[in-house]
């Protein structure tokens, strides 16, 4: 495809995108229903002797009276956070009431985490306020027809309010918790039987504190910018752009003190009144409970009782109103196990339950328009009998590749009911055989360094992809036990929480730590190439207080299709940076008490979400762009990814290589040379010679203007698979100073996603000459040791070719000598080393071959000895040095005769060496040795012309 054709194609694509944008603009600009709003401060009693007022907004549809819906916001937000949701419901014909919970927005009072006598009482008061409005449909005196919904913190108040106030007729809690003590201090190990619902958790006592998420939300309630001034006016209401920002980047919202599902960022959407102090806007009880957890990592019974008293689990046995429970599949804060428990408890109380798992959550974004419409349909039917009965089905989403409006494009599986509820079908569990011996795991002193699985909102902050985040989990060697299945023969769709039986034992001579045994279990999807993916970045903490112990461990609830040829791996670690772990060092053994992993399977009918028309247009544009990119990539591959069969054993062949830049600068000009196996080749040249540009083209980082580079016969281009056969070292490799050299190497290799057995750690360490020092912390290393560790890192996997840039920079002479030996040992394995350096003497001693560049061009290439002899100088080792010097000076054309001990150096300047030798013998001088004077520095200066005035 020519450049003109590519330009035409790009222009056509721009036109399509602009046209699509115009259609979207026209669609979004259409007139909708007229919605009126009323703002009002509602008195809500007193707190700490001061009046509490709730800042509310009432949304009135065009036709009234109508049923009402209360919409609650998430933690850190305010009524402005849910303005968009409220307007959507008002457009559907509902009267909608939003409010800022006490302690948030403009509402006064202290945060009590949805306490019955505080936030729950406030919600009941708002129901009474709705009963006074003539626009609201009534079921009786002081009894409005009303539903309630909200996300996260707002989802919890939806459940609690429905449990305490029977005037609420329907509810739709979203991504919320059932038991706050289990959400923040989970324990997934039990000796008892686990309920047979898809994502049931052990919910055992004495759990492990989820310090990262808890810290984020406590910080949001402590106050800060926009919170401190009790007389501050509210900021401008949040816009749709603000909401999209929070939804697409929950981590950023959380870091600023906001629940991404509930919305507002402190200081942006409003400033709450009330005092701040050591406890911020929290009540003293909540502050004391958090302080205890944050400082000790353990919860007293008083703290557990407090958390349970503000949890929906305290009232679910009283909820009989129809409930649509929505939970996110990408959620390390409130997992699928929380909605599982809520559904089970409401069903046991006789309530009507519909369960929906969607491809989002605190780590994956808020519900999309389709799911929000489904929630509105739920209220349509249960508040005014409109539409078809949504029933009690169970829906879960299997995430696809395309995304429309920031929401994953998914296929939805629908089952008749949520399996395992009272009177419903049981959950099918399929056994998968795991293999692995008993393994010892160690908890390091202080629990540091720790494994990495998740951070608040990590799924959305990493390239906007929870899937990418799930590939960043790191388990540290010595801290993890792994048990793996054989490759699957067909796809297995995991739909909930798998269970595994583990046996944990102590090590003889080591007492059980005071905090018991804390472990973290997780389920990995391991691809055929060894790439390990942690679905939803989810982990199950467990605490065991007696050893030995045989326990059932409930793994995280996930929705994950494990493809054929993939393996399932269960990993058990001693640390996790998202949790509070014991500081006392200890060792344990972990083994399988039963080698059958029980995997939940929920069959159902399959459907695919149909995006709205303007989303389809956007998808069409994306598909068109993908096709164009694929065509261009295919053309480039046909042109670039070709193989020369005659060169498949040759490490490097560069032919006619050139690189030009705008303005006429030609950094590399017609460069050609060849490198064979076993060579240590030095790339020499003064500054500006084009060495770095050549190396960047070799690594596929920039594209040449002309010519080609072939590595083992494959033409190099950006992302070429053959580049995996090259190991590279760039000066200044970053290492973690508090870890050993060995641990740094293993962490680096783990980040590549390749199996440990392909790393060849021992060989790389041996070749690099690190010895026992590899087990020392890097902060104790000398500069030479750090350089050798960097070389060892480049050698991991034993690449067929090493490309090293200034590997001896900053080293003293003994260290340079050691580095020289490292390079020679690596080349002695039959592999190839390419070194760019400005130290001519070191290249002369370390390299077998040399390429000299000047002003972008090749000026010499060959063996070091041959290049060193290019200046015509010769050296004679004789018995009479002074006499030999006189004889040589007398020869025609011979200059620069120098005596060094028994050696006489002379520039023969074209005089045959045999003639000079004959003259010395004729004069009676005994010549012991004669040959070229091997001084690469002189040859280099001669070649590049720097020795000429």
UniProtKB/TrEMBL annotation:
Ranges for domain ABC transporter: 652-880
Keywords in alphabetical order: ATP-binding, Hydrolase, Membrane, Nucleotide-binding, Transmembrane, Transmembrane helix, Transport
Location of the region described as Disordered in the Swiss-Prot/TrEMBL record: 229-277
Keyword Membrane: yes
SUPFAM superfamilies named in the record: alpha/beta-Hydrolases (SSF53474), Galactose-binding domain-like (SSF49785), P-loop containing nucleoside triphosphate hydrolases (SSF52540)
The keyword Hydrolase is assigned to this record: yes
Residues passing through the membrane, by range: 613-635
Alphabetical list of PROSITE patterns matching this protein: ABC_TRANSPORTER_1, ABC_TRANSPORTER_2
InterPro entries referenced in this protein's UniProt entry, alphabetically: AAA+_ATPase, AB_hydrolase_fold, ABC_transporter-like_ATP-bd, ABC_transporter-like_CS, Galactose-bd-like_sf, P-loop_NTPase, Xaa-Pro-like_dom, Xaa-Pro_dipept_C
Molecular function via GO: ATP binding
Record-linked PANTHER family: ABC TRANSPORTER, ATP-BINDING PROTEIN
Family: Belongs to the ABC transporter superfamily.
UniProt-recorded name of the protein: ABC-2 type transport system ATP-binding protein
Organism field: Kibdelosporangium banguiense
């Amino acid at each position: 495809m020519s450049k003109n054709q590519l330009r035409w194609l790009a222009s056509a694509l721009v036109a399509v995108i602009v046209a699509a944008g115009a259609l979207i603009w026209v669609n979004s600009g259409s007139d909708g229903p007229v919605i009126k709003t009323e703002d009002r401060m509602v008195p809500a009693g007193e707190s700490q002797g001061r009046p509490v007022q709730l800042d509310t907004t009432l949304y009135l549809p065009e036709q009234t009276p109508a049923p009402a819906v209360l919409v609650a916001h998430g933690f850190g937000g305010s009524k402005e956070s849910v303005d968009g949701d409220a307007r959507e419901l008002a457009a559907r014909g509902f009267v909608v009431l939003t409010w800022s919970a006490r302690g948030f927005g403009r509402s006064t009072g202290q945060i009590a985490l949805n306490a019955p006598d505080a936030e729950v009482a406030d919600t009941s008061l708002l129901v009474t306020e709705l009963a006074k409005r003539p626009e609201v449909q009534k079921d009786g005196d002081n009894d409005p027809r009303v539903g309630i919904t909200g996300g996260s913190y707002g989802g919890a108040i939806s459940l609690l309010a429905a449990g305490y106030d029977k005037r609420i007729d329907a509810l739709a809690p979203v991504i919320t918790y059932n038991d706050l003590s289990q959400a923040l201090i989970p324990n997934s190990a039990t000796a008892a039987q686990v309920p047979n619902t898809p994502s049931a958790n052990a919910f055992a006592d004495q759990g492990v504190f989820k310090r990262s998420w808890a810290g984020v939300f406590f910080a949001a309630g402590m106050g800060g910018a926009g919170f401190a001034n009790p007389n501050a006016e509210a900021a401008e209401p949040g816009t749709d752009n603000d909401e999209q920002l929070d939804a697409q980047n929950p981590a950023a919202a959380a870091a600023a003190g906001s629940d991404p599902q509930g919305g507002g960022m402190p200081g942006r959407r409003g400033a709450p009144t009330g005092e701040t102090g050591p406890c911020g806007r929290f009540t003293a009880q909540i502050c004391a409970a958090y302080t205890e957890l944050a400082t000790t990592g353990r919860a007293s019974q008083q703290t557990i009782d407090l958390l349970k008293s503000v949890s929906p689990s305290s009232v679910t046995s009283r909820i009989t109103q129809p409930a649509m429970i929505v939970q996110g599949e990408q959620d390390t804060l409130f997992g699928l196990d929380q909605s599982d428990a809520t559904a089970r408890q409401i069903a046991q109380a006789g309530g009507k339950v519909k369960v929906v798992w969607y491809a989002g959550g605190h780590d994956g974004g808020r519900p999309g328009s389709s799911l929000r419409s489904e929630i509105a349909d739920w209220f349509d039917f249960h508040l005014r009998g409109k539409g078809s009965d949504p029933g009690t089905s169970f829906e879960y989403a299997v995430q696809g590749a395309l995304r429309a409006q920031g929401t994953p494009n998914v296929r939805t599986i629908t089952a008749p009911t949520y399996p395992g509820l009272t009177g419903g079908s049981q959950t099918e569990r399929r056994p998968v055989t795991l293999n692995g011996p008993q393994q010892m795991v160690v908890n390091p002193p202080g629990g540091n360094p720790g494994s990495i699985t998740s951070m608040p909102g990590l799924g959305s902050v990493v390239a906007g992809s929870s899937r990418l985040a799930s590939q960043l989990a790191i388990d540290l060697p010595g801290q993890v036990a792994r048990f793996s299945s054989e490759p699957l023969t067909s796809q297995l769709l995991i739909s909930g929480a798998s269970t595994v039986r583990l046996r944990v034992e102590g090590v003889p001579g080591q007492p059980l730590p005071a905090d018991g045994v804390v472990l973290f279990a997780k389920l990995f999807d391991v691809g055929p190439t060894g790439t390990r993916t942690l679905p939803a970045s989810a982990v199950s903490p467990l605490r065991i207080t007696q050893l030995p112990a045989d326990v059932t461990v409930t793994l995280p609830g996930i929705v994950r299709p494990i493809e054929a040829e993939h393996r399932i791996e269960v990993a058990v670690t001693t640390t996790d940076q998202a949790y509070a772990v014991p500081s006392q060092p200890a060792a344990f053994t972990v083994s399988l008490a039963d080698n059958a992993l029980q995997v939940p399977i929920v069959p159902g009918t399959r459907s695919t979400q149909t995006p709205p028309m303007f989303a389809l247009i956007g998808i069409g544009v994306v598909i068109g762009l993908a096709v164009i990119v694929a065509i261009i990539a295919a053309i480039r591959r046909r042109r670039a990814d070709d193989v020369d069969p005659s060169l498949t054993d040759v490490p490097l062949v560069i032919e006619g290589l050139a690189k030009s830049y705008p303005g006429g600068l030609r950094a590399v000009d017609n460069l050609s040379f060849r490198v064979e196996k076993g060579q240590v080749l030095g790339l020499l040249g003064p500054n500006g010679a084009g060495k770095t540009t050549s190396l960047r083209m070799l690594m596929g980082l920039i594209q040449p203007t002309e010519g080609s580079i072939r590595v083992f016969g494959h033409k190099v281009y950006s992302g070429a698979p053959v580049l995996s056969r090259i190991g590279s070292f760039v000066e200044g490799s970053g290492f973690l100073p508090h870890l050993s050299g060995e641990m740094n190497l293993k962490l680096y290799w783990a980040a590549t996603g390749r199996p440990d057995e392909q790393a060849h750690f021992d060989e790389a360490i041996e070749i690099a000459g690190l010895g026992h020092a590899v087990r020392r912390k890097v902060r104790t290393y000398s500069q030479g040791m750090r350089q050798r560790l960097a070389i060892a890192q480049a050698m991991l996997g034993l690449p067929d070719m090493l490309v090293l840039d200034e590997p001896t920079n900053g080293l003293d002479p003994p260290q340079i000598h050691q580095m020289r030996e490292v390079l020679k040992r690596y080349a002695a394995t039959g592999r190839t080393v390419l070194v760019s350096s400005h130290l001519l003497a070191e290249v002369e001693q370390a390299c077998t071959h040399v390429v000299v560049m000047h002003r972008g061009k090749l000026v010499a290439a060959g063996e070091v000895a041959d290049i060193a002899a290019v200046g015509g100088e010769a050296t004679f080792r004789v018995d009479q040095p002074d006499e030999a010097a006189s004889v040589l000076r007398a020869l025609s054309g011979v200059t620069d005769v120098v005596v060094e001990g028994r050696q006489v150096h002379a520039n023969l300047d074209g005089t045959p060496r045999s003639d000079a030798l004959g003259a010395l013998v004729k004069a009676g001088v005994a010549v012991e040795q004669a040959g070229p004077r091997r001084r690469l520095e002189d040859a280099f200066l001669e070649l590049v012309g720097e020795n000429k005035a």
